[in-house]
Write a structure and sequence with these properties.
Layout: E1 7-11, H1 16-30, E2 35-41, H2 52-70, E3 73-79, H3 88-101, E4 105-108, H4 116-131, E5 149-152, E6 167-170, H5 175-183, H6 186-197, H7 210-228, H8 230-237, H9 239-244, E7 248-253, H10 262-268, E8 272-273
Parallel strand pairs: 1-2, 1-4, 2-3, 4-5
Antiparallel strand pairs: 5-7, 6-7, 6-8
Helix pairs in contact: 1-5, 2-5, 3-4, 5-7
């Protein structure tokens, strides 16, 4: 019996994996599959008051706590937040990570993302997608005989092209677990992100009210994905469910990684239906 697929999520910041792929992460873990979450930067720029020296270790601890919610490894690298570039050093670190973890599926940002750190990670993953199979590159880590499938995390950016809905996943069954993971990132969901949104005065001070507050915030963040890709959801889930479902994750398969057939896609995205073949 072949081993279960292994999921590696390579993003720019701690909390990115939960926001963009929390449903798939939870789905993999519910099936007992190995998951590793990696923040390429240290997250040290994401606060209105704390310095990078104060924030980086805090965000590393928050990430570890979030990973523990589902039993996933959560690693935070040392590259400085807000200053990431797709350098050779970053690329080679990513090559080593993909090889060492033996990833079957890699999730990352698109190169047209709003955040320069996101774009830098996306470019580095794109550059690494083929090189993970080249033995003469990063020779201290054995090359893979076959590279992973690479997929892009959901976004709403339209230029130069909108995200293609290759995989549609209903994340409703895992909503509460995603919210528990997000709540571990207290410096972000209760401080930095409300500061940026000018909503700090709405953050609950009573601990019992915080989970419902984060749940409401998260639903508001991801609901636009369903509205944008409603046609794909109807094709995937049928007219009734496609119109009724509001909480989804949308993934596009990158042309730079391994090109999967339909059977492999069904294995890598076990909670999804391909809207192109329903």
């Amino acid at each position: 019996m072949p081993p279960s697929p292994r999921l590696l999520v390579l993003t720019a910041h701690p909390d990115d994996p939960e926001v963009y792929a929390g449903g798939l992460i939870c789905g993999y873990r519910s099936l007992g599959r190995e998951v590793k979450l990696v923040s390429v930067t240290d997250g040290g720029a994401g606060h209105q008051e704390k310095t990078a020296a104060e924030l980086a270790p805090l965000r590393r601890a928050e990430a570890a706590a979030a990973g523990a919610v589902v039993g996933a490894s959560y690693e935070v690298w040392e590259f400085p937040d807000g200053r990431l570039l797709p350098t050779l050093e970053v690329r080679e670190r990513i090559i080593r990570e993909i090889r060492a973890f033996r990833a079957d599926l890699v999730l990352t940002h698109r190169t047209c993302d709003y955040h320069p750190d996101h774009r830098a990670v996306a470019q580095a993953v794109q550059d690494a997608s083929y090189l993970v199979t080249v033995p003469a590159v990063v020779t201290e880590t054995p090359a893979l005989r076959r590279g992973p499938v690479v997929a892009y995390l959901p976004d709403l950016f339209e230029r130069p092209a909108p995200l293609r809905a290759d995989r549609v996943i209903d994340v409703t069954p895992h909503l509460d677990t995603i919210v528990r993971m997000l709540t571990c990132h207290a410096s972000q969901v209760f401080e930095w992100l409300p500061y940026q949104a000018n909503t700090l005065d709405t953050v609950p001070t009573v601990p019992e009210e915080r989970l419902p507050w984060v749940k409401e915030w998260f639903v508001e963040q991801i609901r636009p994905w369903a509205n944008r890709y409603r046609d794909a959801m109807v094709a995937a889930f049928g007219e009734s469910d496609g119109q009724a479902t509001d909480l989804v994750e949308i993934f596009e398969i990158s042309e730079y990684g391994r090109q999967p057939n339909a059977a492999l896609l069904d294995e890598l995205f076990p909670l999804s239906i391909d809207p192109m073949t329903r």
